[in-house]
Amino acid sequence: MNLANRITLARIFLVPIVAFFLLIKLDVAPLTIGSYTLSYNQLFALLLFIIAASTDGLDGYIARKRKIVTNLGKLLDPLADKLLVGAVLISLVEMGKLDAWVAIVIISREWAVTGLRQVALLEGVVLAASKWGKWKTTIQIAMIVVLLLNNLPFEFIHVPVDTIVVWAAAIITVYSGIDYFIKNKSLIVDSSNQGSDSGTKEVRRNV
Fold first, then answer.
1. What phi and psi values does residue 38 have, to the nearest 5 degrees?
2. Is the peptide bond preceding residue 153 cis, with omega within 30 degrees of 0?
């Protein structure tokens, strides 16, 4: 197994560890700054999440740079991202930091797009990420970080950035998903009566 795939697998292995630290309570006093508090298990989970999220582009870069792109990597990379984000969102709902409907919307969109990507692969088409997909990922990560930090440092100036990024993530996630399906509706219409092409064509789309 090459280096890029090992990094992707490491991201997958971090998923249950991040969820573990979010859902347990360590028997230690929380970090306190004035009236602001942050539990250490939440802080550990945040650090691990940042490490895992930062490897998202790294594995792809290494694979392209060393020309070691594999079908396994194409399968595992988006799966790792969705498992990581999904696990954290569900944990945040359990912690009472995120409304369940937001997690449902985001997770549903991600797996619906994954299904469409599988249909595209059967047609010999690779749907590559474009600007809305990248914005969606960035906003989701920002939302998770802000929620895990309990809105620090904005809490000190009483600005509800956590609420703002949650709504921004929900709206952009829905919009990018709708845009994705509209731009690729021909795949849905034609998939039942078209055979797979001999070559693989990369199409620039929202992921």
1. -145, 120
2. yes
pLDDT in tens, 49-101: 999 988 877 887 787 788 877 777 777 887 888 899 999 999 999 999 999 99
- d(Cα 205, Cα 102) in Å, to the nearest integer? 24
CB atoms < 10 A from the CB of 148, how many? 25
What is d(CA 205, CA 120) in angstroms, rounded to the nearest whole number? Answer: 11
Burial 2-35 (b: 16+ CB within 10 A, else e): eebbebbbebbebbeebbebbeeeeeeeeeeeee
DSSP state of 158: T
pLDDT computed for residue 37 by the predictor: 80
CA distance 190 to 93: 39
